[in-house]
Design goal:
Elements (H helix, E strand, L loop, with lengths): L2 H27 L25 E4 L9 H6 L4 H22 L5 E4 L8 E10 L3 E10 L4 E10 L17 H16 L3 H19 L1 H4 L3 E3 L5 E3 L8 H75 L5 H37 L10 E2 L6 E2 L3 H20 L18
Parallel strand pairs: 1-2, 1-3
Antiparallel strand pairs: 3-4, 4-5, 6-7, 8-9
Length: 413
């Protein structure tokens, strides 16, 4: 074989190796959505009241990166994420209620001792195609039920107009969470369920009137609560506190009407955003992959031409053809990369144009002399402050103004 023939063989070999590498790269990042529906467990018979636990689902952490640069890099749109942090808990509430396996289920603005089971989550990724959550759950005793990551990839059919509209495109994740919670509850005895309820009642009482109820509970080194002793039967203070607890449930019901309004108001624009975001995400990834492949092939052609000349090749036609082909491939790759960036800009515009804010609802709490104003979270915080002020004035205890969420449990990575 002539020197020119050897060089051409080397060029072809280099291009073949790069092409195979590019093909492997393309396979590694391609998105084939393998979607298997997760069936949810439902009650086959009606459960008695003493088998049911009340659930409070806190507003989720939207998982927004701290800096604008990180938000742009990860294609996170704060307005959308903040809306999701309210939308997701309410849809999870609907999912749990639909099973018939739980007591009252509420979305709550922050941690509450008034519920038997507390659920919290963080949105790690959401673009209409991929959805990733971290979810934690704890009962009133402080026992951790869940600390788990959930994810799903969504097929195009999940956004079809004629599907069951009660099923969210991310429904697989909601069903998995519901099934996991049920599996843990089914392993509890009636005695353990009663204990969770008793601890919840005493923690609520001790939060409002520590001097009267804090010695009814004890907490071990792991932070788990247990009943040290129960209040005397017919204790008027307990009766009054249970009435206040019911009033808190009524307030939470009112707040859930607010969350329901927000949920239904943003459902259509949110789904439209997810559908378009999914299409743009797929197109963006495909263009980036194609651009990368074109650039690699162009670079290989140019390197092959250089190798040809370096080995003593004398045919300028071979060199020129390889260089021109390489430059054209690089040019095409950069053009595809530019188009991909345009799709990324489209995603950003979709996110920033999505308005998930709702006007605050002003309500009056029955039996109270003041109005609770602001958004749902502010109303709930004002309610707690009001209760603490009432019992502080009655018992002569100092009122602690800071009712923050420092003791809110958070799943650890």
């Amino acid at each position: 074989m002539t020197p020119d023939g050897n060089a051409i063989v080397r060029i072809r070999l280099a291009l073949t190796v790069v092409a195979l590498s590019v093909a492997a790269y393309g396979c590694a990042v391609s998105r084939t959505v393998d979607y298997e529906e997760v069936d949810i467990e439902r009650a086959e018979t009606e459960l008695s009241a003493n088998q049911l636990l009340d659930v409070g689902i806190m507003l989720f952490d939207p998982g927004i990166p701290e800096t604008a640069k990180e938000q742009q890099k990860e294609l996170v749109f704060p307005d959308v994420r903040r809306a999701e942090a309210r939308y997701i808990p309410y849809h999870l509430k609907n999912t749990l209620e639909g099973t018939g396996l739980w007591g009252s289920v509420w979305v709550i603005p922050e941690r509450s001792d008034a519920v038997d089971l507390l659920v919290w989550g963080r949105v790690d990724h959401s673009d209409g195609l991929e959805f990733k959550l971290r979810v934690g759950a704890w009962d009133a005793t402080g026992k951790e039920w869940l600390n788990k990551k959930y994810d799903t990839e969504v097929p195009e059919k999940a956004y079809a107009k004629f599907r069951d509209l009660s099923q969210d495109p991310y429904q697989n994740v909601y069903n998995e969470i519901a099934n996991d919670l049920l599996e843990i509850r089914e392993h509890l005895s009636d005695r353990e369920i009663d204990n969770i309820r008793n601890v919840a009642e005493l923690r609520y009482a001790a939060d409002l009137i520590p001097i009267a109820f804090e010695d009814h509970l004890e907490q071990d080194g792991k932070g788990l609560y247990s009943v040290k002793r129960l209040p005397a039967e017919g204790d008027p203070m307990v009766t009054r506190l249970m009435a206040v607890r019911e009033r808190e449930y009524m307030l939470v019901d009112t707040l859930n009407e607010y969350y329901a309004g927000l949920y239904y108001d943003i459902a259509k624009p949110y789904e439209d955003w997810r559908k378009m975001s999914r299409e743009e995400s797929i197109r963006y990834k495909e263009l980036k992959r194609s651009a990368r492949m074109r650039q690699l092939l162009g670079l290989a052609a140019i390197l092959g031409a250089i190798a040809y000349e370096g080995s003593g090749g004398s045919s300028s036609a071979v060199t020129n053809t390889a260089v021109l082909a390489g430059l054209d491939s690089l040019k095409t790759g950069f053009a595809l990369n530019s188009e991909a960036n345009q799709h990324m800009d489209s995603l950003r515009e979709l996110g920033t144009s999505f308005d998930a804010e709702a006007e605050a609802v002003v309500i009056e709490v029955e039996g109270q002399t003041r109005r609770l104003t602001g958004n749902a979270e502010e109303k709930y915080q004002e309610w707690r402050r009001l209760l603490h002020e009432i019992y502080a004035s009655e018992t002569g205890l100092a009122y602690e103004a800071d009712l923050g969420e420092s003791d809110t449990p958070v799943p650890q990575n």
